Amino acid sequence: MPPKKGKESVQRKSAAEFFTENQTIAGFDNPGKSLYTTIRELVENSLDAAESIGEPPDVALEIRELSQAELDAERGVLRLERVDETLFEGRGKADDKEKTRLFYRVTCRDNGCGVHREAIPDAFGRVLAGSKYGARQARGKFGLGAKMALIWGKKSSGLPLTVRTARAAHEPVSRVVLDIDIQRNEPRVLEDSVAENSQKWRGAELTVTVGGNWKAYRARIVQYLRQLAIITPYASLRLDFRGSGSDRRDVRLEFARRTTKVPPVPRATGYHPAALDELLLEQLLRKTAQPSLGAFCRHALQGGPPALMRRVLKEGGFDERTEPLRVADDAARLRRLARLFRDVNCFAPPDASGLAPVGEYNLRLGVEKEVRPTYVATACSPVAAHEGHAFVVEAAVSVGGLREEEEGLRVYRFANRIPLLFEGGADVATIVAKKRVRWAAYKIDVKKERVGVFVSLVSTKIPFKGTSKEYVGEDAHEIHDAIRECLMACGSQLKAQLAKRDLHQRDRDRRKNLLRYVPDVAAALCGVLQTDEDALKKALQRHVDRADLEAVADDGGAPRARVDMRRRAVVRDVVSTRFALRLFAPRGAASRPPDEDEEAEAEVAPKRKRPRAAWTGVVDDDDGGDPAASPPPAAAAAARWRFEAAASVAPGDDVAAPAAPAWARPWPAPV
Asked: pTM here?
């Protein structure tokens, strides 16, 4: 009965009614996003069920597309013939839209722990009923997941939820078909049966039919499953999509597991005193089974030994033997106790046993499996606290990867091992990766290379911003600093590897440049050395290759000092000259003895070592081969003598080069 005019009446709504009218809070914004959220909730429930018993998850997701006609035929809805067409004028576009409306039957099957038959109605048909409440790490804590999928299915398709489950291989399979009473927030069981477990299967299988838009959110769904394979490399994920109509496009994907190492199951721990406000403290005091306030502080809270808790209660003027319920009923005492817990600064950090990070080993395997980078580094932060809740940050940085990935910096975010795909620009991980870390200091060029930044945050309470649970704000300073330290640690690990890579790239570029000039050098030396040009090219190419191998062997892959590089360059030039002159001198060339001027100059030069290499120049034989009568041409002979004289001095010899003979000296400059 509607309220009378001029009077307002207070109405009450159930939790199911509230979320039905405000479904965007739970991520059901539009048909496409609703399909994505439904898949995400079912898959994450399956992962939790398998991880709770330490079993590597095996999740099979099947999606079948249904048209409006197929759904009507399944539900037994007959299309009525229109008699009075004037009643439907102007519905042309609406009719076309209804014909193209699509529905999807989503089935998710796992190998988890299964569900007790008696708990199925409440677990899947009562909003805000769940088993993940408490101070421990969990993928979901709101008790919405599958219930919101049921509510959305009821609104869009009108079909109920079907649950098949078995707790063990030797137990029968329970099958329950249930609906939900929105006004009362109560489940309604439509069918309840038991069948023989012939396949010896253990786990759960959920089937729900919802409205959606696969075409619009296909990329998001595939991206979600791929990132889920990165953060859970111990899980096997399969997707089988079957379309409808003449232009059906089926999709089959499989993400195989890389390891069987499952993270430990986080255990429920007590609340840290720093995380308690007055409302939460009152709830804990009313629910506790401890007989006294002292026992409540010792067993229901964490943060210190019994002696410390006694000191804290004595400081606030509380008697340990006081009943917790009496403190909860007294607002003044409750306020004083909550204020005391916040002000005391000697409590131990929060216990990390309520956390289960994926681990650096698993994170590295996941990145290598899906991204296939050239280089990857991982880091993990120590256990820290934000507003009294423990958290751990794990990070990985990869360089290189699949060619279909775009160049630049890409940030992958995870919260309690859940991929976060939306509102990434405002997330603290994105801000730190793009604005708070100087990647150039670690020899990483984010504009030219494919750089992946993977940040995984696990905590007993993720400080999400907004109702969408898609990003963490930058104002969480402890988390901000932990992410930055992890990324910098990854950069330090990559710096040495990237320095070696750049060094080898420079050597390859140098070799390429040298080989580019080999034809011109060979052509220029061919006339001087009077040898075959093709043979000279091949010899020069072999020499360049041998010089590169010697450089790598000398360096051992380590970066070279600037002085060593200059010295080695000089030695290489000398060796190259010696090699070219000796190798390509014509056969049968006579050795020219020193003339009188050379002997006189040799006597004047005190204590000079005799050149170790003999003259290998070419002598003009027109006058009978007499070197004194017919010296070699001036330019070629002088060049050859200078080359051989320089080559005769070994690296490190503390001697001067031999004086040049008169015929090898350069002509004086014209006046």
From this structure: 0.76
